[in-house]
Design goal:
The chain is α/β, with parallel strands linked by helices and 415 residues long. Helices cover 42% and strands 20% of the residues. The chain contains 14 helices and 17 strands. The strands form four sheets. A seven-stranded parallel β-sheet has the order 11-10-12-9-8-13-14, sandwiched between helices. It has a five-stranded parallel β-sheet with strand order 5-4-3-6-7, with helices on both faces. The longest helix has 17 residues. The protein starts with a helix and ends in a 7-residue tail after the last strand.
Length: 415
């Protein structure tokens, strides 16, 4: 079996060729990968059945099993995302800015591939295809290390893409997959500074902390998504209920689903009974504070732990707050910095919320479920960076590049 270091060395060699590969060749590789996923559907479903069977035996929650599931619709969506990436403008070589220096040198700053990217992630097999597609289009080679839960699915997906892309002109070694589920493999990967330029970490708090502590390579963290919806007293009741239901129930296993709703005390009597009815219809369990339960007694009592829990399930914590400042204080104390929203008809209050809440995506009258590359109009995303350093938010095609300066002189020297 090829060692992890040998995979990284092969990716490094491939990265030099991929960095200058014409756009047409990269697009051809991506389209071939998309076709391969669709023609390989039976093989993908067979592998996925093994992962689902193992997950059920381990007692994974329905939400986690949903994250693992690959059926025809999801595979076709993965293929569609690859075609969408092929249709995007190629960022490599794009001039970000240009000017003439005082000494007459022609200066330009251009987008360049990062090089070799390693990604350590859990569950969600679509991460395998989305991230690989974005990396290839941006001129980056990728080393994939998925979680044990999706090992069979990821192995097949990576192989189908690698083989199809290489046949279409992608340099061999551009897509690498770490076959072993041994945790020591992650430690080895994180020690390959000089061969790998960036690590993307996607998964649980525990995974991201472990990767960050052990890595000798810069880490971009796709952290947990403890998202809030705050219903301010002037909010349109129907809009507030629609947004909360969507943010919680549309696909609760995703990081951009809402985990906590905050409702102004002045709006609680009007909002909560109708909200309770809608959430019950959607199968959502609500864990609420005493003020909320005084209005809707059938809701379960919330504990302090609930305010810090990312359920990734049809469970919502709910708190009645006395005013705007209390809502801001609660969100700042408990959110993860991924996405938070306010529902209000007061523009001044909304703008204050957008300024005070420092999340990667902060919303006024919209669902946190929109936090992704496609709704943002930037194409598929490889993750959502919650760090306060660039690039924050959904990592689309441009965010998968770095930059360099190109200088054209006429003999200038420094005095």
């Amino acid at each position: 079996m090829t060692s992890i270091k040998e995979k990284a060395e092969a990716a490094r060699i491939a990265s030099h060729e991929l960095a200058v590969l014409p756009t047409e060749a990269k697009n051809a590789a991506l389209l071939a990968m998309a076709d391969a996923l669709e023609t390989g559907l039976a093989e993908i479903e067979e592998a996925n059945a093994k992962d689902l069977g193992a997950g059920k035996a381990k007692g994974l929650s329905p939400a986690m099993l949903d994250r693992l599931l690959l059926d025809r619709g999801r595979v076709e969506l993965m293929a569609s995302n690859l075609r969408d990436v092929a249709a995007l403008d190629d960022p490599v070589g794009t001039v970000i800015s240009e000017w003439t220096a005082a000494n007459g040198m022609g200066m330009s700053r251009v987008r360049t591939p990062i090089g070799v990217i390693g990604i350590v992630y859990e569950a969600r097999p679509n991460v395998t295809t989305d991230t690989a597609g974005l990396c290839i289009k941006a001129g980056n080679c990728i080393i994939l290390r998925g979680g044990t839960e999706a090992i069979h699915s990821n192995r097949v997906l990576a192989r189908l893409m690698s083989e199809a892309g290489t046949r279409a002109g992608m340099p061999p070694g551009a897509i690498q997959f770490i076959e072993t589920t041994d945790r020591a493999a992650v430690d080895e990967l994180l020690g390959l500074a000089g061969l790998i330029d960036l690590i993307i970490a996607r998964g649980s708090h525990r995974l991201i902390e472990a990767v960050t502590e052990k890595s000798r390579i810069p880490v971009m963290k796709h952290y947990r998504g403890l998202c809030h919806i705050y219903v301010e007293q002037s909010a349109d009741t129907r809009m507030a209920i629609d947004i909360i239901e969507n943010a919680k129930a549309n696909r609760p296993s995703t990081c951009n689903s809402a985990e906590t709703a905050l409702v102004d005390e002045a709006a609680a009597a009007a909002v909560l009974p109708a909200l309770a009815e809608r959430l019950a219809e959607a199968g959502v369990e609500v864990r609420a504070d005493e003020k909320a339960r005084a209005i809707v007694p059938e809701w379960l009592p919330a504990t302090e732990e609930d305010w810090d829990t990312e359920y990734l399930d049809l469970i919502l914590s709910l708190k009645v707050v006395g005013n705007f400042n209390e809502a801001i204080s609660h969100i700042r104390r408990h959110h993860s910095g991924l996405a938070d929203a306010i529902v209000t008809e007061d523009a001044a209050v909304a703008e204050r919320f957008l300024a005070l809440i420092d999340s990667a995506a902060t919303y006024w009258n919209a669902s946190t479920r929109l936090t992704d590359g496609l709704p943002f109009g930037i194409g598929p995303a490889s993750g959502i960076n919650t760090d306060r350093v660039y690039p924050r938010g959904p990592m689309g095609i441009e965010e998968m590049t770095g930059s360099k300066y190109i200088i054209r002189g006429k003999g200038q020297v420094r005095s």
